[in-house]
Amino acid sequence: MKDKFFAIFILYIVSHLAFGQGRFSFDFDQLPMPEVLEQIEGETGLIFYFNEQWIDTLQVSGSFQVSTIEQLLKDVFSGSTIGFYQYENRIVLTNNVLIIGEPEITKAYQVDTTQVNVIEKGLVFSREYFDQADESDLESTVFEIGNRNNLVAGGSATLAGYVRNEENDEPIEGALVYVQDPFIAASSDENGFYSLTLPNGKHQVFIQYVGMKNTFRNVVLFSNGRFDIDMQVDVIALQEVLVESDRDINVSNVQMGVSRIDIEASKNIPIVLGEKDIMKVATTVAGIQTVGEGASGFNVRGGKADQNLIIINGAPIYNASHFFGFFSVFNSEAVESMEIYKSGIPAKYGGRLSSVFDIRSKSANKEKVAGEGGISPITGRLTLELPLKAGKTSLLLSGRTTYSNWILRRSNNAEFNGNEVSFFDLSATFDHDFDDKNNLLVSGYVSKDKFKLTSDTLFSFSDFDYVNANTSIRWKHQFNNNFDLSASLILAGYGYNLSFDDSPPNAFTQDFGVDEKTLDVELNNFMGERHTLNYGAGFKHYIINPGTKDGLGFMSIISPETLPQERGLESYFHVSDQFEVTDKLSVYFGLRYTMFNNFGPQDVYTYEEGQPKTADSRSDSTNYGSGEIISTYHGPEARLSGRYNLNDDTSIKVSYNRTRQYIHVMTNSAALSPTDTWRLTSPHLLPQISDQLSFGLYRNYFNNKIETSVETYYKFLQNLKDFKIGSEFLLRQYIERDILQGPGKSYGVEFSIKKKGRLNGWINYAYSRTFIKLNGNGSEEIINDGNYFPTSYDKPHTVNMVSNYKFTRRFSMSLNMTYNTGRPVTVPVAIYDLHGFENIHFSDRNKYRIPDYFRIDVGLNLEGNHKIRKLTHSFWSLSIYNLLGRDNPYSVFFNVEDGKAQGYQLVVFGNPIPTLSYNFKF
Amino acid sequence: MNRISLLAISLILGTISIMLSCISPFEYESDGTEESIVVEGLLTDREEFNYVNIFRTRGFNDLENEPITNALVSVESSDGNIYLYSNDEQGHYLPPLGFVGIPGETYQLHVELDGEIYYTEPNLLIPSNATEITGRVVNIPDPDVGRNVDGVQFFVESASEPSGNHYRFEWEDTYMIIIPFPMQYLWVDSVLVEVEEDVGICYKTTRSDQIITKSIQQQTEKSLREFPIRFLREGLQAFRTRYSLLVRQFTLTSEAYGYFDKLKKNNEGGGSLFDKQTGPLIGNIKNDNQHIALGFFQVSGVTENRKFIRLSEFADQISVPRFQPACPESTIVTTLDSVAILQETGWKVYAIEETGPFSFNYAMNLGACVDCRRLGDIKKPEWWED
User: Would you give the DSSP letter of residue A560?
Assistant: First the structure.
């Protein structure tokens, strides 16, 4: 690719030489511009068109000897506001307007070269530079450029190449490359490319760039040739200067409902059990609620926990929790950034209803080995950045594991003695630059949780483990600065296995698995300043093993049971344009079109019309052969956003989003559990569809130090999934007999204030409601008389405060506060006896609420000294979770005791939990 | 759905929560109780189990269900006969004498109450098979004591080929109580009178109060193997003497199994991070006008099996406990005056020893150590085999 680029460049030079044969020579002395133009017209036969008022005050002095008309005019008009446009032999003058004769896109192929006066320069033929003292000292080395045989005495040649940062091989844009005598200069472009046309011979080429050490090279130029220059970082002890390119993003970004989680910021947030956790930080953003303390899953703007697309490097993670939800599966040290979309979801994302959590893993440092790690009471972790080939290839390895088994074994409580709980996660990111235009990123991720637990009834001793694994391979090709392509192959899987072996006749093993393969192509096209096009297409292929069960050991009498695999194909294309209509108005037009097919082999039942779906009401069954399409669903998803700047600090935004979801989690509890199964859309399991309208007002104060926003939204939902009482989803082939589907609605308003500086953090309040209506056939399928009722994750009021104060550069303190309304529950309303046992009769679903949740956490961070030359940099963090020790119920449940219904609450962390952790970096 | 896997999962989840969490009482206010009609019906192939009870749900502070006495109850069999149930005015409705269910037939319940008709679809009676009770010593965690304990686990196993796939079990266990100092005399009107009844041996009976269900549908071998039914923790008094366990097996239709299974989950509240959704559970009692009747009309074949065992047979693995409650040291008095004073505070004479002419020692002890009726029922069950 680089060669191709170079070839274009040479062509360009040649063309200039070809057309530059006619030489122009003019001498003007304080001549008014109109007369200058007349002279030029006379000499060249060109005709000028212009408005006299623009030029009648201009005068031209000096001697002009140039090879092209273009250069002549450039020189003549230099210092004025006059531009020009040539069309055949007519020259149109313009005032302050640039006329572009060719589209932006093709211009990218051209390289801006600085045309210079050609001055003859004596060439030193002596070989004095061969006895060079120190080869490693670039400034005292003499470089020969070009082919000595092609030397044209008294001619000139072009020196071109790239200016790069020696440390990370990044191109340096805007570096000044020049020679002093004659003074000829050029600056490097975005790719670090520069070119200078110089007289053949010996030169000292100087290179300057802010923040880099000034340097020079001795070159002997024989003919056209390439010369790359590496610059070193200039270490100047200055106070840190923070350059933020998107500090006004709150106001200026066209998308709304977007949050970016800064990994560094998450360091200061006190957390339980000593793990800094970006997912936990995410739940302090307005509109994102946790299901409960230590539980897996989030509810985004009244969405269910399975409606969030969590992707790392484009690959989805089906179970984002370790330890049932106490930790997220992402080791924050290996994560570069996370972006959360609550509304205004770009068209390139799809497949889940409520939100997108787009996580990018770090790419390792390509120049030197670096590492980071930490130790807390539960886990140890380590991240290594390994350059494999300097400047080209790097590998990031990151791992985390728990040693809770060690703790459990030392527990005095006998109940824990037989228990084993462990987890680990590993990630690797391989990053290779073939050249400036081609990059390959291969990332892999695996996490595993393993449990072996004794429990309170005979023979429930059991093993359970679950694994997330994914791989993404992405090739990124840059055609030019404005046009790039990414092609990805993504493999993602989640599965679990449980087994039971304590009673030989009843021993069994059982599993579940979901497997997703995606082929995706995405193109980005920056069409000038006003349009950014993004488009692409792809396929997602799903295979779900809904469950297999088999006897374990020869004595087992458990019969093997295999549910037929579910297969589906989601095909999609998307196109979007971000259009800057004016400086004030920006709009985003996006369209995604998805089609979902599921395939046989499968038996599908139909049920009697108007009857609840049960084994008794099935009317017919159809057998679909292998590969036969069972059902097809498709539809467009419009993604529209607009932003209007009322002034520099204030904007309003509006967006409309439709999202469709074809894979659904089967869960009967509020939290996601690792034993939940995912099932594909089928003739009975309809795709979930959401339409969200949102509106927001954004304003920044004090030079963007304080960001405020108000966003409001309304969602119309179709085919939300809920479940019959007592339904089970393990090894359940005909899930339509357990699920309930109905429309839903969610609405709310979110207020948010964010502050930067020494005292930094955010406070937000969200009012949000979410309802579902289940009105099927028969008493089992009608919930709460078929009226809208609050979902189990409907929490109207949420307040979050995250604050951090830096006392010194080494010492900071943080204080966080969380409040939310208790979630709805179903409570007993009566008792009745049957055959000697007492039973609870329950209220309408979700008619009551558990008590409100309130928690304060504090954290102290102490960093080691900031000496640059140190083996490791470390910091200690002490946090106290739930400082007030408030009993926040996670759930409530009821038992009948002595003929009375007794309520109990489960409190996950009822006491203040202090955690001390040590973290290091090298 | 396999019970064990579910159990295993819920227990794992439960244990995790226990590890880091705590459970405390929760007070809540509901809008008061909601009264509903409940129909509890059982029709089996054995006459003594057949009845229908109709009552209203009760509030949390009521101990008794309020019976409904004005219903008209009948059962229609698949051969077209209609059996009218008699009403005892206490909410109990009994079938006509001699009416028992016949395996292979179906039965439909009709209840007419306040002008509304409640009914069920036809329910098939599936016969039950013979069972066997086995037991062995195990070590498992016991939530009541918060640690692993030794104990004897009893299992149900099929003893003959089952004709059904789904079961509900009830158990009833009885152990003999032998007290150390059964009283021989009572202080009546200032004289010691010999006790007519032997109060040294009683019988303590406990009944299952939980729903126990099991399905064998997903097994290669259609029989029940090692199904845990009753666990006796080491240290229980039952280990001192003779013990009897009765297991009653009802064969259920898949609909009935589904109902009891769900009912069980509904009652089991939870206490884990993954509590299941609960809600009003409707059984097989229908009404065309959307009136709700809770409960179920269960039609089942039933078999019983009783096993007698001396738990001290396990003495090599399980220690035999001392008598509980611990008895105070016996008091020996020599005068009736002393007996009169002591008996005021509950002491009873369990032995009189003649130490000389007109001089006696009266051995006294108190509470359950002299009277087994404080611990169990003195009446020996008819079926008890010594």
Answer: P
Q: Which of residues 774-833 of A touch B (CB under 8 A)?
A: 779-780, 783, 792, 826-833
Q: Looking at the complex, report in whole angstroms how far the Cα of residue A503 sits from the nearest Cα belonging to chain B.
A: 7
pLDDT digits (tens, 9 = 90+) for A363-403: 888 888 888 888 876 778 899 999 998 888 999 999 988 87
| Cα–Cα distance for residue pair A98/B260, rounded to 1 Å | 82
Q: What is the mean pLDDT of each run of 10 residues along chain B (386 residues)?
A: 37 44 70 79 93 90 85 93 91 92 94 93 94 88 71 92 91 93 88 88 91 86 88 88 94 91 79 71 88 92 92 82 88 89 89 88 90 92 90
Asked if A670 contacts A793 with a C-beta cutoff of 8 angstroms, the reply is yes
CA separation, residue A473 to residues A313, A317, A875, B159 (Å): 9, 16, 35, 60
Q: What is the pLDDT of residue A42?
A: 81
Q: How far apart (Å, rounded) are the C-alpha atoms in residues B1 and B166? A: 11
Q: Which two tokens stand for residue B321?
A: 């406990």
Phi and psi (nearest 5°) for A52?
-60, -35
Per the structure block, which two tokens stand in for B210? 């939980």
Q: Token pair for residue B20?
A: 């880091």
Q: Which of B141, B275, B298 sits opposite A455 (nearest CB)?
A: B141
Note the pLDDT tens digit of each residue in A1-32: 444 444 444 434 433 433 444 467 788 888 88
ipTM: 0.85
Contacts of A911 (CB under 8 A, 6+ apart): A882, A885
Mean pLDDT for chain B overall: 85
- Cβ-defined contacts of B314-317 (< 8 Å, 24+): B314/B137, B314/B152, B314/B239, B317/B137, B317/B150
Q: Using omega within 30 degrees of 0 as the cis cutoff, is the peptide bond preceding A182 cis?
A: yes
A718 Cβ partners below 8 Å, 6+ apart?
A686, A688, A689, A690, A743, A744
Mutate one of B1, B15, B224 to test the A interface: name it (highest A CB count within 10 A).
B15
Nearest residue in B to A460, CA atom: B8
Would you call B5 and A904 a contact, using CB atoms and an 8 Å cutoff?
A: no
Radius of gyration of chain B (CA): 26
User: What is the spatial distance between Cα A577 and Cα A591, in angstroms, rounded to a whole number?
Assistant: 9
Q: Which two tokens stand for residue A656?
A: 């409309």
d(CA A636, CA A593): 4
d(CA A589, CA A591): 7
For residue B74, what are its two tokens? 């009948």
Neighbours of A569 (CB within 10 A): 18
Residues of A in contact with B25 (CB under 8 A): 902-905
pLDDT band for position A635 (cuts 50, 70, 90): very high
Residue in B with minimal Cα distance to A851: B28
Chain B touched by A59 (CB under 8 Å):
no
Tokens found for residue A172: 């340096």
The angle subtended at Cα A536 by Cα A535 and Cα A538, nearest 5°, is: 160
Beta strands, E only, A152-270: 156-165, 176-179, 184-187, 193-199, 201-208, 215-221, 225-226, 229-231, 258-262
Chain A nearest CA to B355, separation (Å): 51
Distance from the A414 Cα atom to the nearest Cα atom in chain B, whole angstroms: 5
The CA–CA distances, whole Å, from A560 to A98, A511, B164 equal 76, 12, 19
Give the closest residue to A663 by CA, choosing from A774, A793, A565, A569.
A569
Nearest CA-CA distance, residue B176 and chain A, Å: 23
User: Encoding tokens for residue B248?
Assistant: 């009653």
Say how far apart CA A198 and CA A175 lie, in whole Å: 18
CA A449, CA A422: separation in Å to the nearest integer?
A: 6
